[in-house]
Structure formats: structure tokens, C-alpha cells
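To close the chapter, one final illustration. This time we ask the reader to focus less on the individual chains and more on the assembly as a whole: which components sit near each other, and how the overall shape emerges from the parts.
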Amino acid sequence: MAKRKSKGICAFCGDKATTRDHVPPQGVFPDPKPTDLITVPACESCNSDSKLDDEYFRWFASVGAEGNKDALNLIQGRILPKFNKRPALLIEIMKGATKVDVNSEGGIYLGQRPAFEYNRTRVQNVINKIVRGLYYHAQKSILPKNTEVRDFLLNPIFDDKFKNIICTLPLFDVGNSVFSYRFFISEETPEESFWFLMFFDKTLLFIKTEPNE
Ligand SMILES: [Zn+2]
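The assembled structure is written out below.
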């Protein structure tokens, strides 16, 4: 949370803004914090509402990125010490631990590895804020009132044609690829937008917004 004074409206709810909030939550970035983090104006309640969800999201975004130096840094440096202070969150995550079968691309069984079921609601709460925040950052206006942020897709598989289209969208990079994103906002229907959010070059989230019928 950045405490710098800010005038204008909250990027998330449209109320009067009194603070600035990081998008995505700054906890995602390992220390030392990069200098190019995105902030948007926020009201006090939107800024402070999501602390537990933010912590959960930090774990979620980094756990799928095994082997990535920044993710490892984050898990070892920030998340574990925090969990000692918030055992409830750790228990919630550990309860979701399970094993999944792993197959090679050719279909050969490689054994089992640990996987985690995750709390979709917590992750979606954070994603709603990220999409609204980035929308504001791009448009300097909030998502139109009648717009819904749809359920996210985690690591979706796109066909080559769609991939090529995605790659034509400008790529934005924050914190040396800890977070990168592309998006498309329809000019005729500003309620309609598509978001590709990438964490640690591994965890891809696809979200669309649509007019609420
Ligand atoms: Zn607000």
C-alpha cells in the first residue's frame, strides 16, 4: 500500500480516492521491490480490504512457477516467514495439498508430484482488482458500471491461431518479468476487454470482461 496522497476517484469502485494501491499487489514482487510498480488511486476500503487475499494470491502465483529464480526468492524470502505469523492461511493451503499423476508430452507416466487445490474465490478477488486496476491504468477511467469481470482461466491452452493474435498485442513488463501482461479493450464496447496476465513467466491467467446483461 502506497500512502501517497491522491485526488480523484478510486480505480476499483469509483468512490473518492484517498490513497494509492499497487496493481498487482506489491507482495508478488520479491525484495528489493522493483521501481516500476504500477499504482492506481484507491479509496481506503478498497485498498485495505484485500490483505489476506493478496497474501494468498502471492502464494498462488509463485507456487506454479517452480524453478523460477524470482518465485523461489519469493517463497523462501517472504512467504514462509509470513505464514508463521498467519498459521490459518498456511493450514488452508496445506489442507488443499494433494498428489497428481504427471505424464510426459508423449504420454509416458512420470510418477506423482505434489499439487495444490486452491481457493478460487480468493484468487478471483485479487484478479478482479488487478483487471480493474490495469484497466484504469490504461484508460484513465474505471471499468464501466455495467461490466462484469468473468471467471479466470488458469494456464489455458490456446491454439496457434489465437496465440498469434495474442502476440500482436503490446506486451507490458513490470519488475523484470515477475509480472507481464497484454490486453485488448474494444473501442466500440469498452465493457468488452481481454486480459492475459503472466506471473514469473509461468503462471498465465486469462480473463475477459463483458457487459452485464
Ligand atoms: Zn474503492
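The chain has a mean pLDDT of 86. Residues 89 and 205 are 22 Å apart (CA to CA). With these observations in hand, you are ready for the problems at the end of the chapter.
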